[in-house]
């Protein structure tokens, strides 16, 4: 049986977290003289901003619990999901001793966080279909392998990882299995957050940066057992999500109808753009996508990337990633932006053909 006590860094078990003013007093009062705030107001233009925010984002968690079908105590809120990634590494990995397991090509912050904390990295590349190979992953795991990071839909490839393989990995892995679902809203596949009760070592990451269109507000979520969430709250900074973000996010979470409308447009545009890609001779391969971007393989990614820049179009060159030679990652934009992209690709194709 998995037990977080067996893999947490031992000194953190007895850690006494910082106790903020808002931890020690909850409720309503007429005069607040406990947190050394500026009671005259705020130069930011709103009197609310002179007060510290709710350190545990209770209002947002209540709304997310209903929206995601989980309990409030199963939710951690962070300054982007990158904060949750950093805290998870910090929670269970001893610097200079432990390691994490990555499946490239994948999201780069897992490696960055491990490097920041002097944590070792083992890598098992995805196969030619960008799917995990269970046997190779099992061979790499040791008693020092504390976290397996899975990205599904995967970044930069866009595909969902096969659920049967993911489940097998969660069941067999001795440490935390972190499934990063930043792009889950763009697919019909169910979230792994619906299965938290089955797997005590499962952590699911999501974000409001993608489908919800709030990248600038920096709010990410981790879903896990109440015990893991409690430990993350124990080691996080006391006020890690600011007042403005909490207010705007709380209001946005009431607008699920508008979210569905935006998702419908993006998914329709993804289909249209991918169909157009398939018809262009310069694009050698269009990879399947369950995200709001498409990975394509072209004869010369560097040359096409530079050409698109000249036309005012910025995409992401992923050619240096394992298995992604001459690949560009292209975000699905507005219909007008997508038209400009497609026109640029057609112009480039015509230019290459006439050479």
TrEMBL record:
Keyword Transferase: yes
Keyword Transferase: yes
Protein name as it appears in the record: Histidinol-phosphate aminotransferase
Keywords: Amino-acid biosynthesis, Aminotransferase, Histidine biosynthesis, Pyridoxal phosphate, Transferase
The organism's place on the tree of life at top rank: Bacteria
Domain Aminotransferase class I/classII large: 46-345
Catalytic activity: L-histidinol phosphate + 2-oxoglutarate = 3-(imidazol-4-yl)-2-oxopropyl phosphate + L-glutamate
Required co-factors: pyridoxal 5'-phosphate
Alphabetical list of PROSITE patterns matching this protein: AA_TRANSFER_CLASS_2
Enzyme class: transferase
Protein family (similarity comment): Belongs to the class-II pyridoxal-phosphate-dependent aminotransferase family. Histidinol-phosphate aminotransferase subfamily.
Pathway the protein contributes to: Lipid metabolism; Amino-acid biosynthesis; L-histidine biosynthesis; L-histidine from 5-phospho-alpha-D-ribose 1-diphosphate: step 7/9
Subunit structure of this chain's protein: Homodimer.
InterPro entries linked to this entry: Aminotrans_II_pyridoxalP_BS, Aminotransferase_I/II_large, HisP_aminotrans, PyrdxlP-dep_Trfase, PyrdxlP-dep_Trfase_major, PyrdxlP-dep_Trfase_small
SUPFAM superfamilies registered for this protein in UniProt: PLP-dependent transferases
Enzyme Commission identifier(s): 2.6.1.9
Modified residues (N6-(pyridoxal phosphate)lysine): 210
């Amino acid at each position: 049986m998995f037990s977080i006590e067996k893999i947490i860094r031992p000194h953190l078990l007895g850690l006494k977290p910082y106790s903020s003013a808002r931890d020690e007093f909850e409720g309503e009062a007429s005069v607040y003289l406990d947190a050394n705030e500026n009671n005259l107001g705020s130069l930011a233009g709103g009197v609310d901003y002179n007060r510290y925010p709710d350190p545990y984002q209770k209002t947002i968690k209540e709304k997310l619990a209903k929206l995601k079908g989980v309990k409030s105590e199963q939710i951690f809120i962070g300054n982007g999901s990158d904060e949750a990634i950093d805290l998870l590494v910090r929670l269970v990995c001893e610097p200079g001793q432990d390691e994490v397991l990555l499946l490239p090509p994948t999201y780069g912050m897992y490696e960055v966080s491990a490097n920041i904390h002097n944590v070792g990295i083992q890598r098992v590349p995805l196969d030619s279909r960008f799917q995990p190979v269970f046997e190779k992953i099992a061979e790499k795991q040791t008693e020092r392998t504390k976290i397996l990071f899975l990205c599904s839909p995967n970044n930069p490839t866009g595909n969902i990882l096969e659920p049967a393989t993911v489940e097998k990995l969660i069941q067999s892995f001795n440490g935390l299995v972190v499934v990063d679902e930043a792009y889950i809203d763009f697919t019909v596949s169910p979230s792994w957050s619906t299965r938290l009760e089955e797997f005590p070592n499962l952590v699911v990451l999501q974000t409001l940066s993608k489908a919800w269109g709030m990248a600038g507000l920096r709010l990410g979520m981790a879903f896990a057992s109440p015990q893991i969430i409690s430990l993350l709250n124990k080691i996080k900074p006391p006020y890690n999500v600011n007042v403005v973000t909490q207010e705007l996010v709380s209001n946005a979470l009431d607008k699920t109808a508008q979210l569905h409308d935006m998702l419908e447009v993006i998914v329709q545009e993804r289909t249209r753009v991918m169909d157009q890609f398939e018809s262009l001779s310069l694009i050698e391969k269009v990879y399947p996508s369950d995200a709001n971007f498409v990975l394509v393989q072209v004869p010369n990614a560097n040359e096409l990337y530079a050409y698109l820049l000249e036309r005012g179009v910025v995409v992401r060159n992923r050619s240096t990633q394992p298995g992604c030679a001459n690949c560009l990652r292209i975000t699905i934009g507005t219909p007008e932006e997508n038209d400009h992209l497609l026109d640029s690709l057609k112009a480039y194709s015509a230019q290459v053909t006439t050479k």
